[in-house]
Design goal:
Elements: H1 2-24, H2 27-30, H3 32-58, H4 61-71, H5 75-82, H6 87-130, E1 131-133, E2 139-141, E3 148-151, E4 157-161, H7 162-167, H8 170-186, H9 188-202, H10 206-231, H11 233-242, E5 253-254, H12 260-269, H13 276-306
Parallel strand pairs: 2-4
Antiparallel strand pairs: 1-2, 3-4, 3-5
Organism: Nocardioides albertanoniae
Keywords: Hydrolase, Membrane, Metal-binding, Metalloprotease, Protease, Transmembrane, Transmembrane helix, Zinc
Pfam family, one: Peptidase_M48
Length: 328
Amino acid sequence: MIAVVVLIVVAATAGTLGATMLSRAGWVRRAPVIGLVVWQSVSVTILASVLLAAALVALPPPVFSAASGWLGTCLGLLEGHYAAPFGWIGRVTGAVIGCVVLARAVGCTMLEARAAGVARRVTRGRLALLAAPRSDGVLLLEDDRPAAYCVPGRRPVVVLTTGAERLLRPEQRIAVLTHERAHLRARHHWAVLWASGLNRAFGFVPAFAHGAREVELLVEMHADDAAARASGRQSLAEALVRMASGPAPTATLAAHGADAVTRVRRLLGRPERLGAGARVALTGLAAALLLGPVLIGLLPAIESTLREHCAPYEHACDVPGRSDVALP
């Protein structure tokens, strides 16, 4: 059961200490795309570690026999690595925990998706009545308040209010619209949905609570970088300040949302980009986080397969708890 213990330790460490370190890391906001990947990898690692630990505890005895033949290893050695120490009570407990965790994660994410879908349908209905399409595909909404946002989904649209069109200079409007198109192109709403769903399901876990806020901010920073390349950091920063009080419907991604003050300071401060070596290392970290739980769960089976004999069990009758074996 070493694998189960290690998986639980990994989940607890990533959910607490890992989340704290990541939320304080300066490189995250210097490279928002990599930051998004690592945050998502941490959340997947926590969830996968808990589910795999529960699955390993819940494995019924017939699985060991089948796995032993498939792997070509000793049944006793395999059971010694994986068998639940508490018998059927441990297996039932593991199965219940795994099912509850999986059901809550899926259910809460689906509830978030449903709520977002309803809100976007309401927004699209309002836009159909009040907004007019421009030649560049942007919907121009009659509203004196300056705002710009995108409505993601199967029929994505970018919306600009008449107040923003009058208030912003041409280069500022280009920056804002580029920002919104970057959201749609990168499908940022999926990252936000996943983070908000896990936060709704397990908000008591620091990684999911911090992750929901950080992901929302990082998708905006990623879109900021795309807009800054098109129109300059100064133009986008000025546009964000001018639209600070603008409205943004629920379940949309607005240029002036998610801590605009922090984003303006970042744009004006011109943070140093991460080097190639740091990017490779952080990408490797994300891959290790994703593969780690699976490798931890499989390593005992791999080690059993590589053994040349059935140590510590030299004979079938020496297998603890086995009464269904007979002397040859």
